[in-house]
Structures are given as C-alpha cells and as structure tokens.
Amino acid sequence: MAIKITDDCINCGACEPECPNTAIYEAAFDWKFSEGTSLKGDIKLPSGQNVNADTEQEAVSDEYYFIVTDKCTECKGFHDEPQCAAVCPVDCCVPDEDNVESEEFLLTKQSFMHGDNDKQSSNETSSWFSVKS
Ligand code: SF4
Ligand code: SF4
Nearest 5 degrees, angle CA 8-CA 98-CA 19? Predict the structure, then answer.
C-alpha cells in the first residue's frame, strides 16, 4: 500500500529529499506527475482518470508535508523499506489503509514512472497498465 503522512508531522522536511519518486511535497505546494519521473504528456491513472503529467496539481494538505498516493511505490524498485518512514523523527509516515496495492502493482507503477514504458515516446495516452502488456 502507499504510505501517508499523519497530522503528527512537525514539518521538519527530512523525508522530502529521500523519496525516489518525488512523491513528497511541502504543505500547500502544488505538484506534478512529471517531477522526479519520466512521465510527460497525457497519462491515465489507475482510477481511469486522464491527467497531463506536466500540469500542476493542487496540494493535498495546507498544513503538513504530504505524499501523492499515485506517485508512492513504498520505495519498491529502489529500496527495501519506505525511506520516508525510515528518516521521520516522529514516525508519522505510516501505511495508508485506504490505498492498499500489491507488490506487483507497486513495481508496475515504479516502472511506469521511470521510463520502462514504450508508450512514453508516442502520442498515445500512457497508462500504468500499459507496462504490463
Ligand atoms: S514510501 Fe518511498 S516512494 Fe512512498 S513517499 Fe515514502 S519515500 Fe516516497
Ligand atoms: S520527516 Fe516526518 S515530521 Fe518531518 S516533514 Fe516528513 S513526515 Fe513530517
């Protein structure tokens, strides 16, 4: 499952540079799928929603650092454990029970975000699931 940040966060910023997917943002900061990934242009999310990877998305929290669920892979494909949880001084990076994903899916997501996807170079809408096909 993805990781989430609880309201115990003290906004120290230690987690942000540790994320291999650039899934962690400071409170109130807008974010993009393209930041820290090879995503560009139109993409289809697991939910079926189409978005543009280069378009700014609204901050998830105005008070605390937050994790973009669709960019979090629990660090699968990069590290053995979630790096945000490993460095957080108050242990507020915890499993997100509302976003449970299999290891296979997390690895597919990681591949999709970091270029192992031949549709990235075409004009087609890229989907997480196209990696598997
Ligand atoms: S678990 Fe890993 S990928 Fe997910 S937000 Fe934390 S550092 Fe980023
Ligand atoms: S390391 Fe923990 S306390 Fe610090 S900003 Fe990240 S989630 Fe918040």
Answer: 60
